[in-house]
Amino acid sequence: GFGVWLLGGTSTIHIGASGLVFGYFGFLILRGYFERSFISIAIAVVVLLFYGSLIWGVFPTVQSGVSWLGHLFGFVGGAWAAHLITQRYQKTEEEIEIRIL
Predict the structure, then answer these.
(1) What pTM value is reported for the model?
(2) CA 48 → CA 4, 31, 43, 51, 90, distances in Å?
(3) pLDDT at position 83, please?
(4) Which of 1, 45, 74, 93 has the fewest other C-beta atoms within 10 Å?
């Protein structure tokens, strides 16, 4: 939302749930990349197979009425969330291993 607000034009209207959809799409794909567990990679592959063509929505188009900025920043937000959650999860595993030792 912040990226769209910052870079969106003053005469444009950005409304809808597509930013959320692209955020979840980016999260599912990049969590497999960051986490590198079998289940996360399998989910990322399945999502790419079924919904991979969504990635074209993050690029600018001449089609009016489509907020490609919402799509782009939704995807970036999902990627960032995947990175943060994976990083936090890995730190928790390391703390558990240290306590066991």
Answers:
(1) 0.77
(2) 25, 13, 9, 5, 25
(3) 93
(4) 93
